[in-house]
Request: fold
Amino acid sequence: MSNNSDININTLDQAAILMMSMGEKEAAEVLKHLGPKDVQRIGTAMTALENVPQEHVEFVMSNFLEEARSITGLGIGSDGYIRNMLVGALGEDKAGSLVDRILLGGNTSGLDTLKWMDARSVADIIRNEHPQIQAIVIAHLDGDQSAEVLTHLPDKVRLDIVMRVASLDAVQPSALQELNAILEKQFSGNAGSQAKTMGGTKVAAEIMNNLEATLETELMESIKEVDEDLGNTIEELMFVFEDLKVVDDRGIQALLREITSEQLILALKGSDDELKDKVFSNMSKRAAQLLLDDLETKGPVKLSEVEGAQKDIVNIARRMADAGEIILGGGGEEML
Reply:
């Protein structure tokens, strides 16, 4: 049996092991407080679990209990409820009752339910709606899902939607009620009576960050042709892989613990020496030499694979920044 000090499990795998160690009822109570992206990430990690050693389970449980003892209160928000991901993670039979428990306990709106749908289905639902309705939907979804939905919409409407997203601020209840009325045949929910803040240049920048590189470039050029100042503002807010150069050493070290070696190797194939040196300097000499050897022996890779790995790492970095685990110094923000 390994000593606990020798066990190294990233936080995502720890969450997956913890969920799989719980009963369905307990897991349901936890998962119903997570948003779609977190559930998808944990569900994917759960599917990859295989022959987990008992000492790893004990390690995860010990860490969880230690964390729990240090917390005096939990502020957890619910963003929607789980469907397809749990079926994929646990199978139809086992997931069925779990999905039902979570759904019966929630207050899911039509907009939140869209987060559980595949991008093509969302695009089909909003394809013939007014551009402002389309913009509200796109602004409400997570950046990577919004970007994928845009790829399934006609070229001529993408520019209009992104421009509208960048200009959104508070959406009035009447607009939300109209949108929920459109969705009521498939979903149920209450839009509420308060104006909802969504959209803006930051959201537009996040969507742009998640677009395929060629489409991102074309769309940015189109935005600048219509409104150069707006385009520059969005561009300044975009955080790209090369911006990791200005993340502090502690942040880089934390990020490296959350990504795989294969992701890092692919991503660095397309980066400059400055960023490579930044990564190497935050690793042990042995680990840095192994990474350098892997980079040198790695054969030619497709540009799409490099860009995909870079976007994955940027998304992980953004998630960690949102959780307060690291500080991103890119996107035009000055590090203090």
Notes: The first strand starts at residue 170 and ends at 171. The chain is about 65% helix and 0% strand.
